[in-house]
Amino acid sequence: MNFxxxxxxxxxxxxxxxxxxxxxxxxxxxxxxxxxxxxINKVFNRxxxxxxxxxxxxxxxxxFFRLENLRFADLPGYGYxxxxxxxxxxxxxxxxxxxxxxxxxxxxxxxxxxxxxxTRDDIQMIEFLVECEMPFVxxxxxxxxxxxxxxxxxxxxxxxxxPYGDQITMLPVSSETGEGIEAVRAVIEEIAAxxxxxxxxxxxxxxxxxxGGEDETLRAIEEFRRQAAAGELGEQHRLPTRPRK
Length: 245
What we know:
- The chain is α/β, with parallel strands linked by helices.
- The chain has seven helices and seven strands.
- Strands 1-3-4-2-5-6-7 form a seven-stranded mixed β-sheet, sandwiched between helices.
- A hairpin with a 2-residue loop joins strand 3 and strand 4.
- Helix 5 packs parallel to helix 6.
- The radius of gyration is 17 Å and the shape is globular.
């Protein structure tokens, strides 16, 4: 899969404007300023595919992109306080309408800033995804801002900070250094292969290798592919609606 071949399709400010979906979709979700646009640009090897802004809450539309047999939805960032009540309601209707719809949402990449404990909005989003039994992966952004020791401490703390945290797949990434990006691409390739008919081996990713973290990235890719081959992927991403006792 050549990630550079992604194309921008359209932006919509109201859910009622969005045409019916005709292919599987992968959504990127997260609070304002979590690094969603930077991650999207890094994953697809494009500098300006998603606009990066220093102003939180700048993305107020759902932006759609397409790559081969998949469509990608860049959802507006949530949790930004300095907007009007009517604008918050519009965002809520846009995001909620999309996630509650009958569209074929194959996966949600839920972004959380690795440097800090999850916000109340992050936790509510995780609870919503679990309740809806929607497949998702937590992407921990801005890992380059932490030392190795600090990263390990946050990874140990997160299972206790998130609902069902011990059952969630978490991928630490850095859009600056490229660490962990190949693991995100591996997830996308597995989804694409499954949607195309469940090929056993996903095609190799085209493009230059990312700097740093090569061994860790390869282990993450191999583990994800092992889970897919063993039929464990569905259980890993379709989480239960209540904790196991």
